[in-house]
Amino acid sequence: MKRVVVLTGAGISAESGLKTFRDAGGFWEGYSIEEVATPQAWHKNPELVLKFYNERRKQGIHAQPNAAHMALKELEKHTEVKIITQNIDNLHEKAGSKYITHLHGEIFKSRSTVDQRLVYDIQGWELKIGDLCEKGSQLRPHIVWFGEEVPLMETAINITLSADVFLIVGTSLLVYPAASLVEYVRPSVPIYVVDPNASAMNINRKNVHLYERTATEGVPEVIQKILQL
Description:
By secondary structure, the chain is of the alpha/beta class. Helix content is 30%, strand content 21%.
């Protein structure tokens, strides 16, 4: 049984109606990255940061997985699938995928500001000033902000090293360190890329197959190719 490792980015969630910073040149409904998605923003104005992620959470509660998410779930019926996602939403979970590594955190979870090991599910969509961890410290969104280390990067590297097929969906490969995962794909392993701008990606490898499609169009098509390997 082949192990398919999938790296997903904002493009797969966009087709479920979830916006990204990059869609608007670094702004998200009037907010810049520096205002709401950095440790400095949290220290300067935690109320604004919480409000921003509350709105994203409220939007995410109603978002539903699309045909690309469902196709990846269906692939599990035929082979082992492990998903590494740069997305903070829970659409892969809603689709029913079993093995998901969230590189950049999870929007429906909170984390202690004094002990990062203390992570909690958020009931509903709101996280407020005064919501405390068991050690009495304010809870923050369980998100890897710009400028912070990516704790699960080593886990993602080990998963990538185990791949027999590597599938990239809806990511520009511009955000590091996630983009560097391609460098850990073993030389003999085929790489499939599904993205409207796939041809613009500079993947210096043999055995790379580019599909300039949206996720919902391209993923089901590529999965049929993978099943024939």
